[in-house]
Amino acid sequence: MKNQSQQDCIWLLLGPRSGDNAQIRAIAAHLELPGVEKHLTYNPLHMVPNVLKGASLLSLRPDAREIIRPPWPRMVIGVGKRSVAIARYIGEKSGGTTRLVQLGRPRANRDHFDLVVTTPQYGLLPGANVLELPVPPSGLSKPGEDDLNAIQKQFTAGKPRPYVILVAGGSNSTATFTTHAARNLARLAQQRANDLGGSLFAVASPRTPEPVVETLRREFSAKATFVPWKPVDEGQSNPYAAFLSLGDEIIVTSDSASMIADALSVNKPVKIFQLPVGWQGRFSAGVSAVFNRFDRMAAGSGVVILLLAPWRGLRACGLINPPRQMELLIKPLFNNDLAQAFPMAVGENAPVGKKPENAGFSVDAIRRITSLLEE
């Protein structure tokens, strides 16, 4: 319930990662109250576990602390680990009237929040205030007519349809985007476009390693159109959203949940290329399996519950977490026919016109957050 000192708005706690910020903005765009962006910059204390920072502004740089002042908002939306202490500080100073919503994996006790909106790769334990979505909210902006016309004039004019759009990401903690993988991906994507009698367009991301960018540039020099990432501050809009909008089929690498969510949001057939998983990925999968086993045992009965009380306590306060496993997000998409593995199995060839019904991935999140605002 709103008190007289509250603002009728929602604070968006933005940080250094553009993908995280896009998720916050995507949620806020569907809510009735205006969103006020709070651009937070952090000092090295952001690396301290949240259980030790408590509800505080200790991890903020001085200029960022200045913008966290009353009147407090009706709601705060943050993402990940860094903003947890700040969100809790706001909730405490508001006397508990500000609703706290956290996206992703907070690495903190979920009881601090009114709602945690997460996705399968983080392996969060279920709870009444935990909402797990198939993919994160997509922050993809609909391209304007000028952007679409520019792409059509510069890149797609005279090229035969269907348009196959390849979106290349980068390495993460469990998979490595090697130059060998880049050459293999380029060959397979070009073959896919040839089989369809269409055209291939490849777009890099800001995380694509430079050796991979150069490899893709060479591979596509005479066969397809390759567009490296172009920062907005170079004076021209990035063609990423326009290509996704114009494409008839999208191939995306397996490293980024945000890129997969963006691809699914435009309701085109989506195919996911698995990047190579080295020893780090195999080790991570083994650790994740251990977490799953202990979590199941801790939810059992008898003497096992007593023995695993320390485990439950560490999990509850977010001090131990399973490694991120993108396979936990990707497999259900395959099982529910929302995406296909790339390259496809022999004989598998979904028609280009197939459009998975996925626009409602964030509907549950919007509904739950709206209900919090109405309480």
Describe the structure using short key phrases.
375 residues; alpha/beta; Rossmann fold; 3 domains; six-stranded parallel sheet
Question: Would you mind describing this structure in some detail?
Answer:
The protein has 14 helices and twelve strands. It is α/β, with parallel strands linked by helices and 375 residues long. The relative contact order is 0.14. The strands form two sheets. The chain has a six-stranded parallel sheet with strand order 2-1-3-4-5-6, with helices on both faces. It has helices spanning 18-28, 50-53, 62-65, 84-93, 145-156, 179-196, 210-219, 240-246, 257-265, 279-298, 303-307, 309-316, 326-335, 363-374, and strands at 7-14, 35-39, 73-79, 99-103, 115-118, 130-132, 163-168, 199-204, 225-227, 249-253, 270-273, 340-342.
Taken from the alpha-carbon principal axes, the silhouette is globular
What's the CATH topology label of the largest domain? Rossmann fold
Computed structural class: alpha/beta
CATH level 4 superfamily of the largest domain: Glycogen Phosphorylase B
Beta strand % = 15-25%
User: Which stretches are poorly predicted, pLDDT < 50 over at least 5 residues?
Assistant: none
Whole-number total of structural domains: 3
- The rounded distance between the terminal residues' Cα atoms is 6 Å
Number of helices: 14
Overall mean pLDDT: 89
State the helical fraction: 25-40%
Largest sheet: 6 strands, parallel
Element order, helices and strands? EHEHHEHEEEHEHEHEHEHEHHHHEH
Can you tell me the CATH architecture of the largest domain?
3-Layer(aba) Sandwich
